[in-house]
Amino acid sequence: MTGDVVNLRQFRKQKARTEKDKTAEKNRVSFGRTKVEKQLTKTLNDKASKALDQGKRETPQDKST
After folding, report:
1. Chain centroid to CA 40
2. Is residue 33 very low, low, confident or very high in pLDDT (cuts 50, 70, 90)?
């Protein structure tokens, strides 16, 4: 009928470690991109921005003074 004795301080610390590990794993997936992947994304965004700017029409400036 006797149960295992549990040290609550150690239990809390272990629980905090596991929570921290879960958060770290999520961050690794979200933010853990290589330098090449980051450069590729930047290059593609720049290219898309240039293509968008090339299609814009220029409006004449108002010269009323």
Report:
1. 16
2. confident
DSSP 10-48: HHHHHHHHHHHHHHHHHHHHHH---HHHHHHHHHHHHHH
How far, in Å, are 23, 47, 48, 53, 60 from residue 57 at the CA level? Answer: 47, 18, 17, 9, 10
Structure token digits, residue 57:
């029409």
Contacts of 41 (CB under 8 A, 6+ apart): 33
The amino acid at residue 60 is: P
Count of beta carbons in the 10 Å neighbourhood of residue 23: 10
Domain segments of the chain: what residues?
Answer: 11-52
What is the rounded average pLDDT of the residues 22-49? Answer: 91
**Tokens 């006797």 found at:** 2
